[in-house]
Each structure stands twice: as C-alpha cells, then as structure tokens.
## 1
Amino acid sequence: MKVKKYLVLITLFILPIVAYLFFASGITNFGKLAILTNGVDDVVNMDGDATFKDNITVLGFLGNDPNNTNGNAFNLNQKIYKRFYAFKDFQFVMVMPKGMEEEAAELKKELGLLVDMSKWNFVFGDEKQINDFFNSLKTDIQLEDDLSTPYAFIIDKDLSLRGRSEDEEEATLYGFNATSVSELNNKMVDDVKIILAEYRLALKKNSADRQK
C-alpha cells in the first residue's frame, strides 16, 4: 500500500514539476528566433490598411497571377493562420501589385469559408514599391517576374525579419516555402510558436517587474 501511495504522490506532484522545469529550460535555451534583418520597411506607404508595428506578422508576396500562388495562400491559411490567428497581435500581410484588388477580395472570400479572416490583410503597390520593399528584407531569395515568391516571412513587432541563422546543420533560413506542407508543419509552425512565446514571456516579465 505504501508503494502505491508513493507512486500516486509522484504522479500528482513530482512529474508535473519535472515537466514544468523541462519546458521552462527549453524556452530559455531555444526561446528566441535569430534576428536576420533589422529595419525592414513598413507597408504603411502601400495601398491598404496594415502596419508591422506592434504586430507579429507572417508576410507573403502573391504576385499578379493568382493561379500560381493561391495554393500557397491556402497552405499558409490552413497550416499557420488557422492555428495562430486568435492571438491578438498576430496577423497576415499579403503584398500584391496594384490592380489585383478584386482578385485579393475573391481569395479572401474563398479562404473565409474555412476561418475568420479578420487578421488577413492585403496591401498593394506598384512594381518599384514592391521590389524596393522586398529588397529591404535582405534575403537570399529573389522575387519572380510576376512579383511573387512561394516563401513566407516572419516579421516581429520591431520590424525585424526573424528566422534561423546558419549553423552546422543548415543554411540561414530567411523564409518558409509555402509550397511545402512539410516545411510549414515542421519548421514554420515551431518558429511562430517560439516568437509568440518570446513576446508572452517578455510581457509576463514586464508585468512582474512593475508589481515589485
């Protein structure tokens, strides 16, 4: 009976503490994404109603041929947006050329059959605006001729591009290939979790400091 009692006590009290310490140490050691580019241009100068400031943003470039990129938008919507849109400071921003407003509205309507689209934003610019803005990311990725790319990017609240810096196993990861469901599931989901946790922990720390 004593052995059974001790097992019950261990299950109820010791294991939760061990689990907490494990996850806490994980956040401490792996809880930040690398800052790859500081001072990314904001999108406030483009047509639309969006800003990176004070938001955690998933950024994409859908170009002027929806037939080539709507599949990427669907993948991002299913694998990333639906999972995280409930966080109040999380958003999507999709860049498209001017003249694509109707196509953007139609895409948003189609995707909205699956989820609340209030955190999906579209902005529109001319070719020079889009190229100049994309170049401010300072990545090793090139825009296609239609001003699209299959890669999605994470921009933090301070207008910095976040990702994975070069290590022994892989090269610097500036963006996530939305044509690959595996990459979205195995890398981007984890990295969005990390940056959200990073800001939540910072918020809790600031709140605790003010209460001292």
Note: Confidence is low (pLDDT under 50) at residues 5-30.
## 2
Amino acid sequence: MLNSLHFSGLGPERINGRLAMIGFVTAIGVELDNGQDLYAQIQTGGIPWFIGTSVLLSAASLIPLLKGVRAESKSNGPMTSDAELWNGRFAMLGLVALALTEYVKGGALV
C-alpha cells in the first residue's frame, strides 16, 4: 500500500496527472476568458489557488489509496485507470508546452 507512494509508484504520477489536467484546462480557460498568459495568471493571484487545489486534490487522492482502494478496481468502460494516467501525462506535457510557447511568443497563446 505505501509502496504506491514511492517516487516510482502510481500515487505521485496519478496525483500530478490530476493536478496537471485541472491546471491545463484552467490555464487555457483563463486565457480564453481574459487573455492572460500563464505567467500573468501566476503573478495575479494564481499561487494561492494552486496551493489550495494541490492540497485538496492530493488529500482526495491519498485517502482512498491509504485505505487500500486502487483506481484499477474502480475502472470500467472508457474511464479506465490507464486512460487517466495517459491523460495526466499529456496534460503535464501540455502545461510545459504552453509555458514554453508563451515564453517564446512573449504573450498569451490565444
């Protein structure tokens, strides 16, 4: 059970993936709404939102894991644990690509 929390375990990757999915959708949504790039979003109050979301989602992900509930046991249909891991990986790459693109472009992507 606690082996899942090691660096190479599924816990950290699943939690980081969930945070990346929320972060990517939020970053794009804010850009579409008011044109702020990712760096401006962070500078204008994004840090407290990031910390709060990170704590909430980490706790929500760790509690079932520590109780022995595995995401694989709750997978059915198109919403599988593998799909969640892949979506999280793509969201992590998307956030990095968004940040690099905005840095090179010098402003918001949209």
Note: Residues 20 and 93 are 9 Å apart (CA to CA).
## 3
Amino acid sequence: MSKAVGNSVVRHRVSRRLRHLMRDRLDRFPPGSALVVRALPASAEATSDQLGGDLDSAFRKLGLPVHGGAA
C-alpha cells in the first residue's frame, strides 16, 4: 500500500478494513481468481460503509453480482 494513504498505522488499518470487507465478497469470483485492491489516499478517511460501497461499485463495473454482505 502506498505511503500516500498515510503513515504505517493508517495503512495497516485501511488494509485490515479492506481485507474484512473482501472476505464477505470473495464468493463473487471464480475459484483461483487473482484480485488486487488498491487503496487510494481517500481510503484513510473513508468509513467502512463507504469502502464497501466503493468495492461494490467496482464489482458492478466488472459485471460481477452485488448482493448481501457487509457494505
């Protein structure tokens, strides 16, 4: 994760939040898929709901189903 997101404490917090949000969304991908989630600087100030919404929006653009899960 880029240092533009914040200091190491902030970067690790964002990383943990994204990992938790992705855990509920992994079933949308075929087995063996590889995915990279890039955190932009605004991620440091975003709420979990905002991050989840951003992930769901990106998945919609990819044509993946958006359902349930924590958003």
Note: The two ends are 22 Å apart (CA to CA).
